[in-house]
Amino acid sequence: MVSLKLQKRLAASVLKCGKRKIWLDPNEINEISLANSRRNIARLEKDGLIMKKPTVVHSRSRVRERNKAKSKGRHTGTGKRRGTANARLPFKVIWMRRIRVLRRLLHKMREAKKIDKHIYHALYLQSKGNQFKNKRVLLETIHTMKSEVSKSKALADQAEAKKTRARARVLKRVARETKKTDQ
Question: Could you say which residues of the chain have pLDDT below 70?
């Protein structure tokens, strides 16, 4: 058995691949063993006595299938988990998502003049202080605050109207009395 170590090394260099990818025709060993230069190896490659093996297929189809199943929630039970809950989805990330949603809502409502800057500021600080679990709760609070404000405003207007009526009554009475005294 002739050693074809040299030929394999030269072929790998000529074909620009590793030695493991070189195929030497087992029926033409004697002819291949005579090739001792790169030019000879290139000629043998052209004749088909030396070939570059195709790359081995490393299929990802099974991985894709498993990932599709994982996206549906399979294979993610307690037995498959290695990290803590915080490592898998950090509390900070959850907090950031929530606070951004709340702040975005507050900004939008202030821009649309649905809430004034005082309500906005109060709610902004409350959301920063972890008062609102989600957007729905914040919206409910906004509605209650707005109704309270409008109610207090209506009461203030009523009181003001009452005062003006009372003042007018007093003025009328004073005018009547002065008229009586003049007669």
Answer: none
Half-sphere exposure of 77 (CA within 13 A, CB side): 3
CA dist., res. 43 & res. 4, Å (int): 16
Backbone angles phi, psi at 165, to 5 degrees: -65, -45
3-state helix, strand, coil in the chain (%, to 5): 70, 5, 25
Interatomic CA distance for residues 173 and 94, integer angstroms: 68
Dist. CA 173–CA 162, nearest whole Å = 16
Whose CA is closest to 14, among 48, 52, 47, 49? 52
Chain centroid, CA 116 distance in Å: 31
> From the CA atom positions of the chain, what is the Rg in Å?
44
Q: Is 35 exposed, middle or buried (0-12, 13-18, 19+ CB in 10 A)?
A: buried
Average pLDDT, the chain: 95
Look at the pTM and tell me if it is higher than 0.70. Answer: no
Given a contact cutoff of 8 angstroms between Cβ atoms, the answer to whether 134 and 100 are in contact is no
Give the per-residue pLDDT at 2. 87
